[in-house]
Amino acid sequence: MLIxxxxxxxxxxxxxxGALSSFMxxxxxxxxxxxxxxxxxxxxxxxxxxxxxxxxRGDQVLTQGGIxxxxxxxxxxxxxxxxxxxxxxxxxxxxxxAQVMSKTEPATAA
Length: 110
What we know:
about 110 residues, alpha+beta, SH3 type barrels, five-stranded antiparallel sheet, rod-shaped
């Protein structure tokens, strides 16, 4: 006959090293995911939070909706008043600011 019989083989008794080597790929994948995805995302979120906290009156900003405007009022409750045209002011949340286009210089002490 052309087909040879197949016999079952005994499992290798690797012990503690076998269990460790089976978890090593999972640890390696988690490490790669941390350094390529999680860590850069946390860094970017921290930079965005610092940028939003540093907003002040006169800064030109770009909202996540694509609206360019100048900050005319900063409230403590997380709401900004942004002037998008002469006499047209909208209220936006601080977190909806995507980018600061230009910063104003701080006022000098007299």
